[in-house]
Amino acid sequence: MNAVSLNERFGGELVVATHNSGKVREFGELFRGVGLRLLSAGELGLDEPEETGDTFRANALLKARAATQASGKPVIADDSGLCVDALEGAPGIHSARWAGTGKSFPHAIARVKRELDQKGAARPWRAHFVSVIAIAYPDGREETFEGRVDGVLAFPPRGDLGFGYDPIFLPDGEARTFGQMSAFEKHGLPRDGGKGLSHRARAFLLAFPELG
């Protein structure tokens, strides 16, 4: 399937079910050159459903279903988060909630460090990012794809690129955190059949292997 058939698949428009500007930007980078018109749930004025699922997949589907029902358009949604081994997988599906109502990720990052210190967890602090992409169509069809990237936590935070927990996540085999990487370095799609670096890029390539 090429870019032309992708446009046919989605009728030329695809709603990104998020009010998070960072996620909208990353999906724009991932779909660069495809020609799809991306519309965010935020710009369409769609409500954000309460994330009541107990898995990334459940929450991604919940967001995709709500947006396609409200808009009548095909929707792509993502639920993602940081899972820290020493914190038994937290913040996990609650990653955004740790940032509080003000979406303050410096606050969330400080909480991660505080809880690691309280536990007396020994370094290296192993962690992984997970992204589950859900695609929902107005006719009721649904698809999900999961990507994961492993690494360690780095303190103090490094870099002001990216968003969320990017400044403290050092992917395995890399010398810089996600917060120090350009958008292309973080989630640029490889043209050699590779996985891509970020969790979202890996999930995206499973959903759209023809773009790799």
Topology diagram in text:
Elements: H1 3-10, E1 13-16, H2 21-30, E2 37-40, H3 41-44, H4 56-71, E3 75-84, H5 105-119, E4 126-136, E5 142-153, E6 169-171, H6 183-187, H7 199-207
Parallel strand pairs: 1-2, 1-3
Antiparallel strand pairs: 3-4, 4-5, 5-6
- Beta strands, count: 6
Strand portion: 15-25%
Please give the CATH architecture: Alpha-Beta Complex
Which runs of at least 5 residues are low in confidence (pLDDT < 50)? none
CATH level 3 topology = Maf protein
Strand arrangement in the largest pleated sheet: 2-1-3-4-5-6
Evaluate the radius of gyration: 17 Å
Helix content: 25-40%
Q: Supply the helix-strand structural class.
A: alpha/beta
Distance between the termini: 11 Å
Q: Quick one: overall form?
A: globular
Number of domains: 1
Top-tier CATH class:
Alpha Beta
Can you walk through the features of this model?
- The chain has 212 residues and is of the alpha/beta class.
- The chain has a single domain, classed as Maf protein.
- Helix content is 32%, strand content 21%.
- A six-stranded mixed sheet has the order 2-1-3-4-5-6.
- Helix 2 links the parallel strand 1 and strand 2.
- The longest helix is centred in the N-terminal third of the chain and has 16 residues, at 56-71.
- It is globular and about 50 Å long.
- The protein starts with a helix and ends in a 5-residue tail after the last helix.
